[in-house]
Design a protein that fits this description.
Elements (H helix, E strand, L loop, with lengths): L1 H33 E2 L2 E2 L1 H8 L2 H34 L5 H13 L2 H12 L14 H25 L4 H8 L4 H29 L3 H7 L6 H10 L4 H26 L21 H25 L1 E2 L2 E2 L2 H4 L14 H31 L5 H15 L6 H11 L13 H23 L3 H9 L4 H30 L4 H4 L7 H9 L4 H27 L9
Antiparallel strand pairs: 1-2, 3-4
Helix pairs in contact: 1-11, 1-14, 1-16, 2-11, 3-6, 3-8, 3-12, 4-6, 4-22, 5-6, 5-9, 5-12, 5-21, 5-22, 6-8, 6-9, 7-8, 8-11, 10-11, 10-16, 12-22, 14-15, 14-17, 14-19, 17-19, 18-19, 19-22, 21-22
Length: about 550
């Protein structure tokens, strides 16, 4: 009984927060699809889902996410091998550089690709601007780091003796790969692919920026229906469809994570020297680096061009509001708002994430207790894939009446961003806390230490670096969050991603130049944070 009481007390706070600020808004949004004028109307949902445009949007969502996932896996596997298994100078810096796109604000990625592929851009002659190819390229750019980190971490822990034995028996390198290495890595590959598909299917800023009005996914269609057409029932119906798909994918990813594999219980293998057979993989890795660097380099170069000359005018203009009063507040003020919001969102996400990580990693004594902890783990992962647009609009339509009337509260945006960052924090801390030997806690308890004292003396020494890394992930995710923030940020206090989207939506060379400069500032901030996280050498997105 005492164990169940402790479990309930640990879970009470995070469950209450997620219940009020996630389940309630999402439920409110979903109910709009099933209830019209106060009456239960499931036929309205069916009518929306049978519309020809909805079918086209759903199909585009599925095939673009599938293609982007396949390309990310094909490019990510060689890069994972090179950066995690070969002894190359500077590979830690390269790994950090590849992680930067994953935490870049999606609006920044969209602006960078438009500048690269648009008319007058370095690749403008290809005519890819505003095409599905551009959208897929943006999704691959954003998610290839997931494959590199997840598969690379598994590859580092892979037992090399079976492959060496197969080679000693005369197997060619290709045979060793297909018969030994690939089966051992399959759980990590499939798990990474599942997460990448989930991220691609729920992408918002990239598709909104690169697709315009011609191409839409379920995520951007929900945004269009709520902000432009005011068709709340149709938006809610699409939210229902997306939530069902997301829950299925999260369940699949959870099963894949729990699949035993050959890396379990192994220590990290030392990188080996480069051989001649590694050259194709190195060439693919160089191609990935060039593909990642090209949009960012184009963005940086473009931000220093004004009136066909090199200039800092775009950066100096950040203290203004753009041409034709495009903004209500200068970009510099928006940067201060973003930093303050990110600090608030970070401590909120850390407080909840640490509680959840402790909750789900403590040793279970019965099958029922283990199931309860597993259900709680899945419950707290739901914000990972549920539409940020759905969450943001759900805040507006549900948190507007006492006792939770928060529509005018300055805490609304950081709360929403903390929920978005919560799965990143949990998945960074859980593997570390789960690896702590429970016998050490029992020994501390037998010596008279309270549970809190045992946590300080046993868990904290192992978890302080992951805690710092989780802070970096939460901070970077908050800086770049756009989906929910686009609904919740007040016009006089916008965040930088919201400002960038407004600037590119207003005509004028000055506005576009300011958008480029603001994008570089925001990208630099996230890159610095992630380089600091990489120095801590802890698992990141690979933990998913």
């Amino acid at each position: 009984m005492r164990r169940w009481l402790t479990l309930a007390l640990l879970a009470a706070g995070p469950v209450l927060v997620v219940g009020v600020f996630f389940v309630l808004p999402v439920s409110g949004m979903v109910s709009r699809g099933f209830f019209a004028d106060g009456a239960f109307d499931p036929g309205g949902v069916l009518e929306v889902l049978t519309r020809p445009r909805v079918a086209r949007v759903a199909w585009f969502t599925v095939w673009s996410a599938a293609v982007a996932t396949a390309v990310a896996v094909v490019l990510g596997l060689p890069a994972a091998f090179v950066l995690h298994r070969l002894a190359l100078p500077g590979r830690r810096i390269v790994r950090a550089a590849l992680l930067v796109p994953f935490v870049l604000p999606t609006v920044v990625v969209g602006v960078a690709f438009r500048l690269l592929l648009g008319e007058g851009g370095p690749l403008g002659f290809l005519g890819l601007d505003g095409t599905p190819v551009a959208i897929v390229a943006g999704l691959v750019f954003f998610n290839v780091a997931v494959v590199v980190r997840a598969v690379g971490a598994a590859w580092e822990s892979l037992d090399t003796r079976p492959a060496e034995a197969a080679a000693a028996l005369g197997a060619a390198p290709a045979q060793v790969w297909w018969t030994v290495t690939l089966p051992a890595l399959r759980p990590a590959i499939v798990g990474a692919a599942s997460v990448v598909f989930l991220f691609c299917a729920t992408a918002f800023g990239i598709v909104l920026t690169l697709g315009g009005v011609h191409y839409a996914t379920i995520e951007t269609e929900i945004y269009l229906l709520t902000t432009t057409l005011f068709d709340l029932q149709a938006a809610a119906a699409l939210s229902v469809l997306q939530i069902v798909v997301v829950v299925v994918l999260l369940g699949l990813a959870a099963r894949l994570r729990s699949t035993p594999d050959a890396t379990a219980g192994r220590t990290t293998a030392r990188p080996r020297r480069v051989r001649s057979g590694d050259l194709p993989a190195i060439a693919v890795t160089v191609l990935v680096l060039v593909a990642v660097a090209a949009p960012i380099a184009t963005l940086v170069v473009g931000s220093f061009r004004a009136d066909d000359a090199w200039s800092l005018a775009n950066y100096r203009a950040l203290t203004g509001v753009g041409s034709n009063q495009a903004l209500l507040a200068p970009v510099t003020d928006a940067l201060v708002t973003s930093l303050r919001t990110a600090v608030d969102a970070t401590w909120m996400a850390l407080l909840m994430g640490l509680s959840v990580a402790v909750l789900v990693t403590r040793r279970s004594q019965t099958r029922t207790e283990r199931r309860a902890r597993g259900l709680l783990d899945g419950f707290f992962m739901l914000p990972l894939g549920v539409s940020a647009v759905t969450l943001g609009f759900g805040f507006l339509i549900t948190l507007d009446q006492p006792p939770v009337d928060l529509r005018s509260s300055p805490l609304l945006v950081p709360i929403a961003q903390a929920l978005v960052a919560l799965p990143l924090v949990v998945r960074t801390l859980v593997p570390v806390l789960a690896g702590v030997d429970d016998r050490q806690r029992q020994a501390a308890a037998s010596l008279g230490a309270s549970p809190f004292r045992a946590m300080l003396t046993v868990d904290l020494p192992a978890a302080w670096k992951p805690l710092l890394a989780a802070s970096g992930f939460a901070f970077a995710a908050s800086l770049g969050e756009f989906g929910a923030t686009s609904f919740l940020a007040r016009d006089e206090h916008p965040t930088v991603p919201v400002v960038i989207f407004r600037l590119i939506g207003h005509p004028g060379e000055l506005n576009y130049g300011m958008a480029l400069a603001a994008s570089v500032v925001l990208a630099t901030a996230t890159a610095v944070v992630m380089l600091a996280v990489e120095r801590l050498r802890v698992p990141s997105v690979g933990a998913f």
